Amino acid sequence: MTTDGPAIDGLVADRALLSRTSTAERVAGILRSRIIEGWFPPGTRLAEDGIGNALGVSRNTLREAFRLLSHERLLTHELNRGMFVRTLTVEDVVDLYRVRRLVECGVVRTVSGPHPGLPVVAAAVADGEDALRRSEWQALGTANISFHRALVALAGSPRSDELMSGILAELRLVFHVMADPQRFHEPYLERNRGILHRLQDGDGPGAAEDLEVYLHDAEQQLVEAYAQRQAAPAG
């Protein structure tokens, strides 16, 4: 698998986000967003020429962006083959959810009344409901990721936001292991709505308890999916 078609077309549109003084960090941010949105699944080879031409950046700038994303554990370099979107392991899944419980539940637990960030959380739930009505499962997964990003943003901490951005990008790579994204994502939309209602009522501790169970259930589903994939005979 390599980058082509709609994924490259989308990057052409992203070119407008870059100025003549664009940096590798901006390029990395665009590619990170595309990974979060599900455009580049695990194992995708990132073709330098196609991506560089689409974004209108030099090869050196693109390679620096690749290096930054490699440090974030999103990309991996294979000798004589190039740069690939990383395929995560079950150990990665366990560690990601360990960090998610620490960060997300910790933030949510502090909400005790009206919060200016809750409309963003509500908008993510609404986006999920819209994706469900349209049967767009990739969009439903993206809305779910936006929901969790909005939860962490309630802390008002740029450092927490930056940490969560990397975690959620890795998480999107994990989600690709689920053979039926509708079956995986749809039940969590209702749980997102329930957490939102708890927060709107000022019940941060109750929302945190619900979220703790939610994250445990999701982790178990993903771990089981990884186990099934490893047990499946090679085709």
From TrEMBL:
Source organism: Pseudonocardia kunmingensis
Entry-linked PANTHER family: GNTR FAMILY REGULATORY PROTEIN, TRANSCRIPTIONAL REGULATOR, GNTR FAMILY
Protein's name in the database: GntR family transcriptional regulator
A molecular-function term among this protein's GO annotations: DNA binding
Pfam family, one: GntR
Classification via CDD domains: WHTH_GntR
DNA-binding as UniProt keyword: yes
Domain annotation HTH gntR-type: ranges: 21-88
Keyword annotations: DNA-binding, Transcription, Transcription regulation
InterPro entries recorded: GntR_C, TF_FadR/GntR_C, Tscrpt_reg_HTH_GntR, WH-like_DNA-bd_sf, WH_DNA-bd_sf
